[in-house]
Amino acid sequence: MPIDTKANLTCPQCGTVQEADMPIDSCQFFYECVSCRAVLRPKEGDCCVFCSYADKKCPSMKST
Ligand SMILES: [Zn+2]
Predict the structure, then answer these.
(1) Residue 1 counted as domain residue
(2) CA-closest candidate to residue 20, choices 63, 60, 62, 58
(3) Total domain count for the chain?
(4) H or E segment at 13?
(5) Is residue 28 assigned to a domain?
(6) CA of 2 relative to ligand 1 center, distance in Å
(7) How far is the CA of 38 from the centre of ligand 1 (A)?
(8) How far is the CA of 40 from the centre of ligand 1 (A)?
(9) What's the 9 CA to ligand 1 centre distance in angstroms?
(10) How far apart are CA 7 and CA 41, in angstroms?
């Protein structure tokens, strides 16, 4: 079963929702918004931008 690595990332600056690929074995710390070019960073306590701004947690959080 393939791991779902697509997530919808919502930019906190401009509200644009963009589909992004999540890395399976690492955490992505920075993500540049396709619309406003803001560089997103994880909120405090989150491991990656997907945990903070996407509709899913990153795959590395699910696997042990
Ligand atoms: Zn943006």
Answers:
(1) no
(2) 58
(3) 1
(4) none
(5) yes
(6) 29
(7) 6
(8) 9
(9) 10
(10) 16
